[in-house]
Amino acid sequence: MSLSNLIDDWSRYRKGREEGGFHDYEHMWGMSIDLNKCIGCNACSVACYAENNLAVVGKEKFEKGQGMHWLRVERYWDEPDLGEERTSEFQQHGASFLPMMCQQCNAATCEPVCPVAATYHTPDGLNAQVYNRCIGSRYCSNNCPFRLRYFNFWSYYEDSWPAPLQMQLNPDISVRDMGVMEKCTFCVQRIRTVKDTARMEDRKVRDGEVQTACSQTCPTGAIEFGDMLGMYDPETGVAETRVTKMWRKHQVELGKTKQNKQTPEMRGYRVFEFLNTDPCVMYLDRVREV
Amino acid sequence: MQNNEVYKDINEDLKWAQINKDVLKSMENPRKGYWISVAVCLFLISFAVVGEVYQYNVGMGAANLNWPHMWDLYIATFIFWIGMSHAGTLLSAILHIMNADWRKPIYRFAEAMTTFSLMTAGLFPMIHLGRLWNMYWVLPYLTDRGIWPNFRSPLVWDAFAISTYLTSSALFLFIGMIPDLAICRDNARGWRKKLYTALSLGWRGDDRQWRNFRRTYLIMACFLIPLAVSVHSIVSSDFAMSIMPGWAVTSFPPYFVAGALYSGCAAIITLFILLRYYFRWEEYMTIAILEKTAKLTFAIAMVWTYLNLIEFASVWYGHSAADKEVLLAKFFGPYAPFFWGMIFCGSVVPFALAFEKLRRHLPTMMVVSILLNLGMWLERWMIVTPTLSLSYHPIAHDVMWPSWVQWFIVAGSFGWFGLLFLVFVKVFPSVSMYECKEMVLHRRELANKEISPVMANNPGGGAPATGVSSKSPGVEGS
């Protein structure tokens, strides 16, 4: 029963790691985010709030650091250059933006530390969070180097969606209660819907058929979302998806701690690659005139 | 040293009947001071109850936890209490195997301290859970859902380790107490008679019983030593197994074990002085024993300091930017006062134990031991919190101070521990009578004195020592 599941999971995990591939995976959802295109408008974040029933906690609690933004657009300001010329780059360039959502690491650090296995890896390459199973030990968030897991410190239901606002909640995804950890799911409800449709119509999921709320909303098309499995297994006949092409073009590979780039000017990188968490989100560095 | 004649571990002329009398006296009806202590403990507990009820109802936000400060004082205090539990095992099991007989008058209350601090520590992982009502999910119980806990998680190891350790240490405490419980049984009336009759398991003190008892005790001691070491290693793996800078430190298991023994020894000194004062146990809790405990504490303090320095050095030479940043933040950041307080209490104050004059001065020792424990509590806090406020991701750098709820619950845990301990000293003998008798015998043998005078009944017209047990305690077995 469960013990055999455990052993199966373990052997699959070992096998996957040794072969450097994910052959028995059904899909491998991934992203490519072009920071050149990102204008920091936060539309992705808003879309995420609407799609995933994220609690709007209010200014006070947000400032306390109890916000629930699964997708946050981080702003990094240039240090004012107070050199000889006394000019400040701060003025010239403003902020650089980094939209951060759960990186869906293939060797996720949050997964092994959960005492009740509320977070685990699906055969879709997703890092799933089971809200009903979560007991709120919060170890996963502590062990996430990206700090992309958010905890329901309060019961937000009444404050967040006063009647009749609860009518606008997305029925495809639950509303999380107090004491539960949550995080970006790559809009798993959309993935499920598309996969079910494809199964009904007896076909494979097409490229671009699944769109996460953020990639759908991004006005500049900075966020690409798709299946990346074709990149690893061309023999199966899966055509290369747009995301796979981006990853190949920018010479970033899954399962590597350090990328051996033939052409270092290619902009692709993954956040904290040296930690070997193997994220599924690739960023394309912003290029600027200095 | 000429003073050695004055400072003996135990008075060799102490009569056995006198030992019985002195220890049994501690279990008589409490005096006023006792009730005041109980009231103080209950007062502290009421604080924790208020905090916990509030937090349970409105959520963990009440504790001023935030992103990224997911853990704070609860986990720090949890480690503190777990750590404190290790000294009891050190005294009763490790020193037992090493044949250090000076432990005999003081190991019983140290063991009780072990059990009760574990009972206190065990509350904290529950209190800190977001969904307290589902806490049993970390245990592997049979269920229709077929879901097991995640055996890779250090928190599950914690649950196993602590429950195992609590069971074994409670059992060890009980087993070691059986001969004494028989003495209590022979002298008690009323509900106590019933209680001790049940607990002493028909102890008559005959040869076979003593032999079995010795063997069981030794086996339990041998079992408990690796268990105690592994328990705190496992607690340290809550941090060492993570990926976070300042937590993922290879030297954490020995560092935690050293810290555990350290805080436990300091707590033993505190309780030693309190018991000696309250029960007038100058004959048993002698200055010589206090000195030996203090020397042991000093040695452990130096080990702890060394491991601390190793940690800093390895971070420094490791050249990991994030690790370095956390270390520097401890030195100079917002947590610096607490960090330097920890260094002062943990590494500077113990040098007071190096001076014979101070070691023999009870008020100084009281202050020192409390400072040492304060330092060890700060150490745990400084392990948990700076890492959370300064992890890899710069956007998540944040400083958050605990709210009144956390402080109330931490204060209440001391009340809870105190209450358990106060109940213990009135219900059970907190000095091991039979082992004190053994100790007197051994010392007399060493001094080439006759054994029979101390074994006589009716010392100086006092109450008859015991009925059945007059021939039992310690003779045949030792």
Q: Can you describe this structure?
A:
The complex is a heterodimer of chains A (290) and B (478). In chain A, 26% of the residues lie in helices and 13% in strands. With 290 residues, chain A is an alpha+beta fold. Chain A has a single domain (25-284), classed as 2-Layer Sandwich (Alpha-Beta Plaits), CATH 3.30.70.20. In chain A, a hairpin with a 5-residue loop joins strand 4 (119-121) and strand 5. In chain A, strands 8-1-10-9 form a four-stranded mixed beta sheet. In chain A, strands 2-3 form a two-stranded antiparallel sheet. Chain A starts with a helix and ends in a 6-residue tail after the last strand. Chain B is globular. Chain B is mainly alpha-helical and 478 residues long. Chain B contains 18 helices and no strands. Chain B has helices at 16-25, 32-58, 73-84, 86-97, 107-121, 123-127, 154-187, 190-199, 207-240, 252-279, 287-318, 321-332, 336-348, 356-359, 362-389, 404-427, 433-446, 452-455. Residues 458-478 of chain B have low confidence and may be disordered. At the A-B interface, helix 1, strand 2, helix 6 and strand 6 of A face helix 7 of B.
CATH topology title of chain A: Alpha-Beta Plaits
Helix content of chain A: 25-40%
CATH fourth-tier homologous superfamily of chain B: Formate dehydrogenase/DMSO reductase domain
Q: Which residues of chain B form runs of ≥5 with pLDDT under 50?
A: 458-478
Q: Average pLDDT of chain B, to the nearest integer?
A: 86
Biggest sheet architecture of chain B? none
Number of strands of chain B: 0
Number of domains of chain B: 1
